[in-house]
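FORM 12-B: Structure-to-Sequence Request
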């Protein structure tokens, strides 16, 4: 049960149950169950070694911020397809590793029985910084500021609305939208990969990625606002 250390030996079913409990009772879809099982296996040796979930969270944050370095190098040479443009290929790798760490910290907390309110706040804060870093990478790769700022602002609104609704009594996430964190990371990583594979068109890839992120964020924020309004209305 949560709060009791089990050295990461929880079964797949038990891990899924604890994950659902930690996410407001949301049932894991088959694809999510597959991801959870892989994360559980990867987290087991970390739990056995006594690694804290906060340490994993901070590693994920550092990896997200490190993605800005190759993005800056590639962005300097990207418009004319210079040699440095290939550095963009490192951006999706670092963002992917950061996303893995983001999944691992929760698994370490759940499996090790070390979940805490402070850890949840740290995780949420690092997620917001990592979201901004992913969008900043697209900006460094050549995307204009407008769609990047729109995506960043609407993404922050998305998370603020959910947190505020939960503070008002809503249980669970309200709705799973088109702009959840995995989508944000995937969009940034996918279009950064395009910048690296096709450096001559790097600016176009980055710009398209930023607008896709902005559109997804707008749809997601609107969807969540409606869902939270309905959920809170039902509590009255």
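FORM 12-B RESPONSE
SEQUENCE OUT:
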């Amino acid at each position: 049960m949560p709060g009791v250390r089990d050295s990461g030996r929880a079964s797949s079913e038990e891990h899924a149950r604890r994950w659902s409990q930690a996410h407001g009772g949301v049932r894991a879809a088959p694809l999510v169950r597959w991801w959870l099982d892989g994360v559980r296996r990867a987290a087991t040796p970390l739990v056995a070694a006594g690694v804290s979930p906060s340490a994993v969270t901070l590693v994920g944050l550092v990896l997200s911020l490190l993605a800005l370095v190759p993005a800056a190098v590639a962005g300097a040479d990207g418009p004319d397809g210079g040699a440095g443009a290939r550095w963009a290929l490192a951006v999706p790798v670092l963002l992917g590793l950061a996303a893995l760490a983001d999944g691992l910290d929760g698994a370490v907390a759940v499996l090790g029985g070390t979940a805490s309110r402070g850890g949840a706040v740290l995780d949420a804060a690092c997620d917001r910084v990592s979201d901004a870093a992913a969008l900043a990478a697209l900006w460094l790769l050549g995307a204009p500021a407008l769609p990047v700022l729109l995506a960043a602002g609407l993404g922050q609104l998305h998370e603020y609305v959910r947190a505020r609704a939960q503070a008002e009594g809503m249980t669970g996430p309200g709705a799973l939208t088109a702009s959840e964190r995995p989508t944000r990371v995937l969009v940034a990583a996918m279009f950064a990969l395009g910048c690296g594979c096709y450096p001559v068109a790097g600016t176009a890839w980055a710009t398209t990625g930023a607008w896709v992120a902005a559109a997804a964020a707008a749809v997601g924020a609107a969807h969540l606002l409606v869902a939270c309004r309905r959920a809170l209305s039902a509590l009255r």
